[in-house]
Design a protein that fits this description.
CATH superfamily of chain B: Fumarate reductase/succinate dehydrogenase, transmembrane subunit
Strand content of chain B: under 5%
Shape of chain B: extended
Number of domains of chain B: 1
Pathway (chain A): Carbohydrate metabolism; tricarboxylic acid cycle
Subcellular location (chain A): Membrane
Helix content of chain B: over 70%
Radius of gyration of chain A: 19 Å
Shape of chain A: elongated
Number of strands of chain B: 0
Radius of gyration of chain B: 20 Å
Subunit structure (chain A): Part of an enzyme complex containing four subunits: a flavoprotein, an iron-sulfur protein, plus two membrane-anchoring proteins, SdhC and SdhD.
Oligomer: heterodimer
Number of domains of chain A: 1
CATH class of chain B: Mainly Alpha
Number of helices of chain A: 5
Cofactor (chain A): heme
Pfam families (chain A): Sdh_cyt
Structural class of chain B: mainly alpha
Largest sheet of chain A: none
CATH class of chain A: Mainly Alpha
Number of strands of chain A: 0
CATH topology of chain B: 3 helical TM bundles of succinate and fumarate reductases
Largest sheet of chain B: none
Distance between the termini of chain A: 63 Å
């Protein structure tokens, strides 16, 4: 018998230890990605397929580099939140689910930080 | 009290097919999820290509070979459409969050507009 009220659970005191944090983070990153994508897509679309020197010249520009870093950082966070919901929906075995959720968090951090590092390295060199 | 029966609750059946005929809204919702998952793979591909560009000309040459191959171009074109569909349909979701466009006819019309916009934007970005 739990004495917790529904309101208490919503405040972040339920079994999930969070209230609407996931929902809200998903929305905040989604709204942020609208302008970021509009600015980041054009240089990225232009750069893919160009030569080594041309790609590095595009991301030597601070604006292009900053927009791509924002796209990668916010995008991978948004991706982690989204894939988390997919895993929670389809993986019912608790051990497999926990392993999948951990792997999701770590892979999103790994690839997100790798991408940020790569763009920063090009930008600082150029 | 709420989680007494945790782990032993009945699951809701898969509704589309046996109980519901496919609708625009449910189909586009599934496509939103599929494009989101596909974009995870596309994002890893682009990060790998960026890492190659940050590492040196030799490594970049192999990454460039992959993204400019016909298969790489096909994957990237698909990823671009997935990205722009997820972008347009995400905006539709954000509008729903404000309480607008929730009527069935409006939600369906906005969904059809999302599909058209995603295709037009994909061709626009790909060609320019």
């Amino acid at each position: 018998m739990s004495y917790k009220t529904d309101f208490g659970r919503v405040l972040g005191l339920g079994s999930a230890k969070q209230g609407t944090g996931h929902f809200w983070s998903q929305r905040v990153t989604a709204v942020a990605l609208i302008p970021i994508l509009i600015f980041a897509i054009w240089p990225l679309d232009a750069a893919v397929g160009l030569s080594y020197e041309e790609v590095r010249a595009i991301y030597a520009s601070p604006f292009n580099a900053i927009m791509l870093i924002l796209l990668i950082a916010v995008g991978f966070r948004h991706m982690q939140l989204g894939l988390q919901v997919v895993i929670e929906d389809y993986v019912s075995n608790p051990a497999v689910r926990t392993a999948a959720l951990l792997a999701n968090t770590m892979f999103c951090a790994l690839f997100g930080l790798t991408g940020v590092f790569a763009v920063a390295k090009i930008a600082f060199a150029g | 009290m709420a989680d007494v029966n945790r782990g032993n609750r009945p699951l809701s059946p898969f509704m589309i097919g046996p109980y519901y005929r496919p609708q625009w809204t449910s189909m586009l919702s599934i496509v939103h999820r599929i494009t989101g998952c596909a974009l995870a793979l596309g994002a890893v591909l682009i990060v790998w290509w960026l890492l190659a560009a940050a590492s040196g000309p030799d490594y970049f040459a192999s990454a460039d070979w992959v993204v400019t191959s016909w298969l790489g171009q096909l994957v990237l074109f698909g990823c671009l459409w997935a990205l722009l569909y997820h972008f347009c349909n995400g905006i539709r979701h954000l509008i729903w969050d404000t309480g607008l466009l929730l009527e069935v006819d409006k939600a369906e019309l906005a969904g059809k507009m999302t599909v058209v916009a995603s295709v037009v934007l994909t061709l626009l970005v790909w060609i320019i």
